[in-house]
Amino acid sequence: MKQQKLMDDKLHYVFDNNGLPLIPSYVAIFNNPSTSSNNNTNTTQILFGQEAKDQLTTNPQNTIFNWQRLIRLPYGNPIVQSEIKRVPYNIVSSVLTPPPPLTANSCPNLNHSPALKRASCTQEEDDNRHFLGHAMIQIPAHVPTLHHLYRPEELTALLVSHLKHLAETQAGINFTYTVVTIPSDDTPDQRYALDEAIEAAGLYRLRLTRRHLAPYLAYQLDADQLGVANVMMVNLDPEYLEVALVEMDEGVYETLAILERTEVRYDGEAANRLVLEYLVDKHFSRARGVTATGLLDKTLQQHTFERQQGNHDNKQLRRDKLFNDTTAMKRLHNEILKATAIFLEPSPSHSKKLVRIEIQSFFESHDLSEDLTFSQWQDLRQSTLTALLPTVQKVLESLPEYDTSINTVIVVGASPLVPDATRLLKSYFRGRGKDGKEVRFPTGIDPALAMVQGMAVVVERLTPRYDPLERSCVLYG
C-alpha cells in the first residue's frame, strides 16, 4: 500500500514514524492483560505499517494483512477458505457473535493504544453454522474467552484513520476527502462497506478508482494517445500479481481482460533466499571442486532433493546446522541486500558487475569469501518469477486477436522484483508489437508510486475549479 497527500496541487509523501514513505497495509493488534485488579480484561495496542509487518515473524497470529479481500464475504466463500489456508492469523465466522456497528468511535485519534471493546468469541458454537456468517478476524488474548473479533472493514477504518492522522500532523491542515483504489472484482456490498470504513475514519470518499486503471492515468496514456491503443498493465505487489489488458481510444478506455493471482507473492524474500542458498552451497562445495555454473544449475533445480531422499551426509548435516544458525543467516542476508542494492544501480555495463561477499568468522570459525556476478544474481532472481509469463499468456489467450497488437506495457508495483520482471517482459514482447512496431515500456515514474500518481490525476480532473486547499486529499491504495 502506498499513501500520499495531495496539497496545493502537489503530491507530498506521508512518512511513517520511522521516516519511510511506503506504508504497507499491515495492522498488528495485541490484547495485553490489564494492570487492574480484574485480571479478566484486556487493553489493546495497535501497530501499523512497517512496525506491524515487523511483527509477522514473532507474532503471526496478531499480524493482519490482505484483509481487504475478506470484506463482506461469507465465511464459506472460496476466497475466504483459500485465505484461511494461506494466512497465519485466525479467520472465523460472524455467526459466533454479531459484530458491533462500525462508527467513528472505532477509530479514536491515535496515541496509538486505544482500548477497543469487541465481542467475545465462543468456541462452543456448531462449526457447521460458520458458513452462514461473514468472515471476521480473531485476535488472541491471554484469556481465551476474551478473544477479540474484528470485521475486515474495521481494520481498514483503523488504518485509514492512522494515515489521516499522519497526514494532518505532517501537513498542519485537516483533510476531508480521500481517493481509494479498489480491485476489479469487488462487489457493491464491499464498496458500501468501504464507504462505511472511510466515514468511520473521518473522511469522505471523493472517488473509488479501479486499481488496474490508476497506472494508466499516472502515465497520462489516455491524454497523449491518438487512435486506438492496446495497453497491458502488470502489477507486481508483494501480496499478489495482477495483469490487465485495456483498450484506449482517444481518452476512452475499456478493460478487455484482467487476471489476479493472490497465491503469487513477489515480496523479494524468495529471491533473496535462493541467492542465500546458492552462496551457502558454493561455500561448502569449494573444497569439492564443484564449478560455479554447475552449482547454479543445481540451485535452480531445487537442490533440496537430496534431503528429501534422506541422503544426509556430513556436508548436508553441516549445511542444516548453518541454516539453523540465525546469526550467520542474518549476516549473510544483510550482505545479499547490499549486493542487490549494487546490482540495481543504473549502469550501462551491468553484465560486468561483480560483488565480493566477505564475512569474517562466518561459520565454525571459517570466513566466507565468495564472488557473486550480475548474471548469477539475475538468473536466481528471475527463476522466482515463474508465474509471470504464464499469467500474461493466459490473458492474451483469452483474446487471441490482441496477441500481436500490444502498443504499451506498464510494469508497476512495490515488489523489489519489478526490474527483473521488466527484463523478462521486454524479451517476451520483442517483435510482438502492433503493426510490427516495438512495444513501449514507459519510464519516469517510480513503479511503487504509480498507483498514487494515478489517483492524484483523478483528483485533478474531478476538482478543476476547486481552491487548492479544498482539493487537499489523502490518497490510499
UniProtKB/TrEMBL annotation:
It comes from the Eukaryota. The keyword Ubl conjugation does not apply. Keywords: ATP-binding, Nucleotide-binding. One of its GO terms (molecular function) is ATP binding. The keyword Nucleotide-binding applies. This is Uncharacterized protein. It comes from Linnemannia hyalina. The lineage of its organism: Eukaryota, Fungi, Fungi incertae sedis, Mucoromycota, Mortierellomycotina.
